[in-house]
Amino acid sequence: MSKLVQHEKRRAEILAKALDVFVEEGFEDTTFQKIADRAGITRTILYTYFRNKREIFSYSVKQLMAAVENDLVMVRKNKNLNCVEKLTEVITLIIDRMEENRKLISVVHDLLAHIQAGKTDADYRVRRRTVRVRHILASMVIDGIRSGEMQNVNVRVADDLLYSIIEAAIFRLAVLKKQSIAALKDVAVLAIRQLAVQSQ
After folding, report:
1. CA–CA dist 59, 79 (Å, integer)
2. What 8-state DSSP symbol labels residue 80?
3. CATH classification of the domain holding 105
4. For 40, 55, 117, 140, which has the most beta carbons within 10 A of its beta carbon?
5. What pTM, to 2 d.p., does this model score?
6. What is the dihedral of CA 160, 162, 167, 168, to 10 degrees?
7. 58 and 157 housed in the same domain
8. What is the Cα gyration radius of the chain?
9. From its phi and psi, is residue 110 left (phi > 0), alpha (psi between -120 and 50) or beta?
């Protein structure tokens, strides 16, 4: 096994352990030492992989958002789906990814709570990543309007509607600690159907 593969495998193991610490301790109370202890390594070794806990957190968010963005781009390029089907598939994929990554969603929520309380200034990183998802959703609504498959609605309002479903998923996972948010898929389908041009 090459050194690069071993390095990436160890990095992934550290990230998994770090998420457990973030969830148990909260973002602010998580320390580099606690992450190292949980990963079964020294702080010195941990420094060979990450500079600080913020970088660990940021890398985790980046991995999740990159996977989500990749899913969205693949769906958008799928020529076998119409615009309404693509939008439905995208929201479903996002909800599935969030359920799969509920620990990370919990940590992101914790960080955002600290941002609101003025305890940290790292919010731009999270916002930058979510803006890209919102842009893709808005672009898909525009595609649907241009193709005649969706009503000529205010794109910003439609984007807010769809993104509010994602926010509801975050709330249910991180605040209400729901085990399943699958019902939000039905909400998404209903919302997207309302945006679609109704056949006479």
Report:
1. 32
2. T
3. 1.10.357.10
4. 140
5. 0.75
6. 120
7. yes
8. 19
9. alpha
